[in-house]
Amino acid sequence: MIKHFLNLEWKQYFRSSYWQKNIAINILMVFFALYFVAMFLGLGFGLLFILKEMYPEQDPFVVANGFLFYWIIGDLLMRFFLQKLPVMSVKPLLTLPIKRSTVVNYVLGKSALSFFNFLPLFAIIPFSIMLIGDGYAVSEIITWLFALIITVLIINFLNFIIEAFSAESELSFLPIIVVVSVLFGLNYFEIVPMTSLIGSGFLAIAHHPMLILIPIAILALCYGFNFKTLRKKLYLDSSLKAKVTEVNASDLSWTERFGDIAPFMKLDLKLIWRNKRTKSMAMLLLVGVLYGLFFYPQPMYREMTFMSAFIGIFSTGFFLINFGQFIPAWDSGYYKLLMSQNIKYEQYLRSKFILMVISVVLLFVLGIPYVYFGYKILIAHFAAAIYNIGVNTHVILWGGSFNRKKIDLDKKAAFNYQGTGAVQWLIGIPLMLVPMALFGLVNWLAGFSAAIALLIVLGVLGIVFHKKLMKGITKKYLDSKYKMIDAFSQDN
Amino acid sequence: MIYTKDLSKTYNGTTVLNIEELTIPKGQSFGLVGNNGAGKTTYFSLLLDLIKPTTGNITSNNVVVDESEDWKPFTSSFIDESFLIGYLTPEEYFYFIGELRGQNKADVDALTAKFEDFFNGEIIGKKKYLRDLSKGNQKKAGIVAALIGQPEVIILDEPFANLDPTTQIRLKQIIKDLAEKQGVTVLVSSHDLTHVTDVCERIVVLEKGNVIKDLETNPATLKELEAHFAGGAVVSQEEE
Questions:
Q1: Min CA distance, B238 vs chain A (Å)?
Q2: Collapsing DSSP states into helix, strand and coil, what is residue B7?
Q3: Is the Cβ pair A336, B82 closer than 8 Å?
Q4: How far apart are alpha carbons B6 and B205 in whole angstroms?
Q5: Rg from Cα positions in chain A
Q6: B100 touching A (Cβ < 8 Å)
Q7: CA A410, A413, A418 angle in degrees (round to 5)?
Q8: A169 touches A114 (CB < 8 A)
Q9: In the structure, what pLDDT confidence band is assigned to residue B219 with cuts at 50, 70 and 90?
Q10: Do the beta carbons of residue A383 and residue A456 sit within 8 Å?
């Protein structure tokens, strides 16, 4: 049976038009994966020396265990945003003579083979080898290693439990934020010293191998919970069938002031607000606003002025990049309708453009408080916003004409809670790296004001030539019309 | 009104449609029948410029459809569910189409009010998204949306499929009225020979992309069509 499943997966993956048309992205993904493997390997081999250097008085093994809590939290957070429970189109399997439990076990088992589970091993195993080489008891380290592998799997399945809860709540990021911040808070305010608790827990396992039964039990519990929830959902009338939601119509008549593009503006706003995937994307606006807080509080980054250009582009362009890169795929479900309707392509694109510009302005305004960290940051953000409006909007619209991947807004794929993957983040790179490089270069050669001026000039040029650019972009879309219609009418 | 000349569509060396000449006059209710793969949907897609013809072209009201977009204001269609916008309610969808076709809310309301019977109280005012409606109700919404804005050409692919018997009968009346009273050119395809003969003044049979019959509908047409398709079945059984 597993053989059949694997065969189906293989075909689903390689026969999808997405794979065939995006080899470049796939290569990039492999590249990234290799990069992370290399990083982790380096960490694994180097960690022992680093720890000895930084904490010469303490036992490095004990110190390493002290950090495990942060790793667990970080891993959980990262997985929530990047890892999805492997989607298998299970609907056709339901009527076939396959036991439900087999399907569920397969889906869960497959998730254990995720790249995210192998990645930590590249650090853990070399570190263990180094520890043994350093004279630690082999049996202790081996037990410890197994405990960590089990922990990786626990995180894996715990993540799906959290995702299952977040799928049911309106604000999909809430559960993960709550879990992580409660754990972190308990530790930070020393209500429950999670760091040392988890650290000494792992040490205890290393010393008393029998205790490894505890993480095994937790793993079994997590797996069992996932098994039960998934099994319940494998019915047509639960998760495989879309829930009927009541409409809450809002008054969008204010869009009328945009004239002939008003119908599309209304449509776009409804698109964003009424579909799960786009809705969680809109929530990401918050991340865009708060992004600077990761960097600016540290004086190190405040010194590096080119960082503020990067953060400016990223935080004011957060929505632009996330929304823009899927133009026109957002409308792929009814693309044929749009193409046979009485519409002007340019109006359709301009509505998207205006929406992105509004988001940039909004994000810039919300980011004004960063002036607290220095006026230069505000200036850099302003220049970045202008650049986003003038250049990046057009670039991303132009890039959209190469879009050939359908987005299924209606289908709530059985276990696809996030609808976002790592690929999504890659496309933003040129949009951010180019201005960052330009800024960095000019800043280095001619100083801060010249670099700011450059971004602003580029942005203003884009705005001045907006009409012309849009004409070119529209033509590009018209040229690839048939290809897009064809690609969007294919599944996967 | 619609003139097709030397039209063909080829995919990887397989010709799926090949029409030498076909003229559909204004105000005709035109039926297209044929087995699966006969080229019905391909023809409609070409008519809407959704795919590019390999050779030849279609001229609609003196507009060559794959060269100009001027056919769009007077043409409307419902091919399949991908013409619906799932996250809108039926009303919002009608208004959206209405805005694209230069109709205000009052115009659209006046039009949809005429179809109260047809909707059977399951479409308007239900506070449901189109994606949450049943297949049949989705189809009803799509068909009525195709009637918004006084189009001169209406293209409906398989309009009778998925509809309940009552609605089928009502739909037949609607299509007949459009052609006879309002002078609209209606193009319909169907697998159901009875429905097509009831509705259409003229029926064209496609087989493997070729026009093999072009009939004015008369009381004997249904018999003739049935004989034709049954004959095909016998032949293919013998071939096996």
A1: 33
A2: strand
A3: yes
A4: 17
A5: 25
A6: yes
A7: 95
A8: no
A9: confident
A10: yes
Please state, in angstroms and rounded to a whole number, the distance separating the CA atoms of residues B41 and A180. 53
A311 vs A257, residue with greater confidence: A311
The CA-based angle A331-A333-A334, given to 5 degrees, is: 75
Helix extents (H) in chain B: 40-47, 90-100, 105-113, 116-119, 135-145, 165-182, 193-199, 221-239
Q: Which residues of A touch B100 (CB under 8 A)?
A: 263, 341-343
Which among A340, A412, A478 is the top mutation candidate for probing chain B, defined by the most B β-carbons within 10 Å of its own β-carbon? A340
Q: In what helix (H) or strand (E) does residue A182 lie, and over which residues does it extend?
A: helix A174-188
Which member of B82, B102, B129 has the closest CB to residue A334?
A: B82
As for the ipTM of the complex, it is 0.82
Q: CB–CB of B83 and A336 under 8 A?
A: yes
Bridge-based pairing state of the strands B55-60 and B2-11:
antiparallel
Q: Of the given ranges (A45-49, A487-491, B94-98), which has the lowest mean pLDDT?
A: A487-491
Hey, of B16, B82, B152, which one would you mutate to test binding to chain A, going by the most A CBs within 10 A of its CB? Answer: B82
Residues of chain A positioned with their CB less than 8 A from the CB of B97: 341
Report which of residues A97 and B195 the model is more confident about: B195
Length of chain A: 492
Cβ distance B131 to A262 less than 8 Å, yes or no, reads no
Domain boundaries, chain A: 2-233, 258-488
Asked if B117 contacts B39 with a C-beta cutoff of 8 angstroms, the reply is: no
Tally of helices (H runs) and strands (E runs) in chain A: 24, 0
Radius of gyration of chain B (CA): 18
pTM beyond 0.80, yes or no: no
Any idea of the CA torsion for A151, A157, A161, A167, to the nearest 10 degrees? 130
Closest CA to A283 of A181, A388, A418: A418
Judged against a pLDDT cut of 80, whether residue A452 lies above it is answered with yes
Residues of A in contact with B82 (CB under 8 A): 333-337, 489
Residue B3 pLDDT grade (very low, low, confident, very high; cuts 50, 70, 90): very high
CA distance B140 to chain A (A): 16
Q: Are B29 and B176 in contact (CB under 8 A)?
A: yes
Task: State the number of CA atoms in the 13 A half-sphere of A315 facing the CB.
Answer: 30
Is a pLDDT exceeding 80 seen at residue B190?
yes
**CB-based contact, B67 to chain A, within 8 Å:** no
Residue with tokens 């495989």, as numbered in its chain: A240
Backbone phi, then psi, for A352, in 5-degree steps? Answer: -65, -40
d(CA A455, CA A451): 7
CB A199 within 8 A of CB A60: no
Task: For A275, name the nearest residue in chain B, comparing CA atoms only.
Answer: B87
Question: Which among B120, A254, B30 is positioned nearest to B47, based on CA atoms?
Answer: B30
Question: Which residue of B12, B41, B61, B100 to mutate against A (max A Cβ within 10 Å)?
Answer: B100
Mean predicted confidence (pLDDT) in A465-470: 93
> What are the percentages of helix, strand and coil residues in chain A, rounded to 5?
80, 0, 20
Burial label, A29 (beta-carbon count in 10 A; 0-12, 13-18, 19+): middle
Give the relative orientation of helices A60-82 and A194-207 as an angle to the nearest 10 degrees.
Answer: 110
Q: Which residues of B touch A484 (CB under 8 A)?
A: none
C-beta contacts of B231-238 below 8 A and 24+ residues apart: B232/B35, B232/B207
